[in-house]
Amino acid sequence: xxxxxxxxxxxxxxxxxxxxxxxxxxxxxxxxxxxxxxxxxxxxxxxxxxxxxxxxxxxxxxxxxxxxxxxxxxxxxxxxxxxxxxxxxxxxxxxxxxxxxxxxxxxxxxxxxxxxxxxxxxxxxxxxxxxxxxxxxxxxxxxxxxxxxxxxxxxxxxxxxxxxxxxxxxxxxxxxxxxxxxxxxxxxxxxxxxxxxxxxxxxxxxxxxxxxxxxxxxxxxxxxxxxxxxxxxxxxxxxxxxxxxxxxxxxxxxxxxxxxxxxxxxxxxxxxxxxxxxxxxxxxxxxxxxxxxxxxxxxxxxxxxxxxxxxxxxxxxxxxxxxxxxxxxxxxxxxxxxxxxxxxxxxxxxxxxxxxxxxxxxxxxxxxxxxxxxxxxxxxxxxxxxxxxxxxxxxxxxxxxxxxxxxxxxxxxxxxxxxxxxxxxxxxxxxxxxxxxxxxxxxxxxxxxxxxxxxxxxxxxxxxxxxxxxxxxxxxxxxx
Length: 480
Ligand SMILES: O=P(O)(O)OC[C@H]1O[C@](O)(CO)[C@@H](O)[C@@H]1O
Ligand SMILES: [Mg+2]
Ligand SMILES: [Mn+2]
Known about the structure:
single chain; alpha/beta; seven-stranded mixed sheet; 18 helices; binds 6-O-phosphono-beta-D-fructofuranose; binds magnesium ion; binds manganese (II) ion
């Protein structure tokens, strides 16, 4: 099978939909249909809101007409999926409104394979689905900017109230100590705090809308608090936090200035909030001079961050109806205001910025984050990230793209699994709660132990422990 990554011997195949017994196949045959149905239902709700006048539009009649077209197209897309149709190329009309060349090049290069929804590479097909959804909206003038996942992103963030307030108070209490450390660093203390905020950012990734389809408020609370993080320490199967810390210390001591850290973001809402906490620890302590966030240019994977989601998050934090912490004078309200205002100030000062290059929503894995990939912005992004002393990749999909979503032996060394990216000069850190089949960098025996443990309650599915979101990994590469 040819693809955009150079095929070399000893590199295992990617995960394919349709292969029995995998979480990949379960996702393609069960989860995608649910995600599409939710998109259909949410489009219908928006149409109703336009009809009722609660959503204002400049041209009501046209909005309604276009909305119904989109809804019908989504229904057909769902049928394509359930009928296991061939994966069609994007049309010229679609290509004109979105960056889709990599998808069509891939489909053309593999046209003899008879790629279908349930017989194709998981990574490609899943991204292809989100891009197909997006095209329907992008093509309708009144709906171009509409984010079909917005209401779900917002309601889940609202349900994160408890975790949000707890972290804001932690921030407010720590801020004086952080500021004392700008000129006079207590390195041991900072290392302890770094570890804490790395874990906050890591477990922030457990709040995932595509997996938490039926989560209750209690479920969400149970994974977001400090107690939950403490209890989860033993669930971090690979922990390279120390190596990442050393990278930051070295950059400081060698006064390589300005020190910049990049975040390849994953989900909006609580995870983005947790990432902002980590970034503000780095900025407030003077460990880092600038953080650059990378989000998505289209609605994607249900919950992924778009640039506007950062603005919405700040508004939510300041909105006492969204987060009902009472009068402006309560400690909770003050903590939320303080954090939101500090983030806004960082943005104004240029210490924090957010971008969304189309590279991040292509089907390409991160072996293409390489000077040699000049067609779809891989080289451009590599050059951009080269200004950074550490690039933090958040979440599961980024982990899949780092490892190529390949059927590696689970003890494969991290630097083998990330291919060329291990040697092109970028220090990288992956913070991932495990939500897919691909798994690498484990010590001998760990997989066997976890498979046996998971098998007890999930007969025949022991290896799916790595798709449960209950374990996590922190993997570092110095890029040398
Ligand atoms: O938001 P995250 O952590 O990237 O998770 C999304 C991932 O979860 C899944 O929905 C489930 O495995 C994958 O399709 C995708 O890789
Ligand atoms: Mg997700
Ligand atoms: Mn995501």
